[in-house]
């Protein structure tokens, strides 16, 4: 059985005028039952969110002509569009008693009439539960690729993402840099302030890193207190600037508990992709630079070029 959408769903024109509440979503007589039946059946064939919306967009054309649809869910960072964006739109909030499932807008070059809006609302009732299942599936997949403590990507995600990004970067002749980042003397944090303080520092460090990078960049937990940051479209100089920003941001964090006050620093190795690089060789160069940063005294950024790797500590970026 399909439950009605919540009554705070609404259809609106571009000027934001609310034209219809969707508290009562009983399908109107002019949607043929076989259309609803077929749509409902098709929506149950996939758990993949983008496929689900694509099916929905194609199938609803039999009941109401629509130029395009767009779906957004801020908490999941999702924005998906199908067809064309047009002048007029009707927007709905998808919601059951328990779950918010995003906002869906229908677009068309001509105004939606009242009975068409009623039909769209009827069609939406078939989407609610398949959408809830697809979002749960999406969450489960995302969790499988995330480090549970810090929320950074895990090693599985890193391998998949970095490999793909390297291929795309080479194919499009763009730039890609990575940072290998390791918190300094982290063992002492655990030993002197306790493991839960160690966990807190790790979480805050990731918040700092993600605050310093673009949305298209990604942070992965590489090991215990080691992180890899993937900087898409970043050349050598740009990557060094971001690395320095992250280093400073982490060093300005302040922690305290009953054992006292604590500040942490980080060492960062930076490497930029060359055409000859594989994923392993790129990571190895960043790792070597990180090792050098530790060797040079920690709390600094060192890049992968041979010159800098060979330089004595005084030539590091600090
Ligand atoms: N609290 C906490 N500690 C962790 C976690 N993962 C790894 N660690 C600790 O991180 C510490 C890493 O220590 P080391 O590899 O000796 O490195 P370090 O003390 O940071 O020294 P340098 O890297 O040389 O500056 C170990 O004590 C690990 O137990 C975690 O999830 N939580």
UniProtKB/TrEMBL annotation:
GO terms for cellular component: plasma membrane. Its EC number is 2.7.7.65. It catalyses: 2 GTP = 3',3'-c-di-GMP + 2 diphosphate. Coiled coil: none annotated. GO terms for molecular function: diguanylate cyclase activity. It is an enzyme of class 2 (transferase). It comes from the Bacteria. SMART domains: GGDEF. Residues 174-306 form the GGDEF domain. PROSITE patterns: GGDEF (PS50887). GO terms for biological process: cell adhesion involved in single-species biofilm formation; negative regulation of bacterial-type flagellum-dependent cell motility. Its cofactor is Mg(2+). InterPro entries: Diguanylate_Cyclase, GGDEF_dom, Nucleotide_cyclase, Rev_trsase/Diguanyl_cyclase. PANTHER family: DIGUANYLATE CYCLASE DGCM-RELATED, REGULATORY COMPONENTS OF SENSORY TRANSDUCTION SYSTEM. NCBIfam families: GGDEF (TIGR00254). This is diguanylate cyclase. It comes from Thalassolituus pacificus.
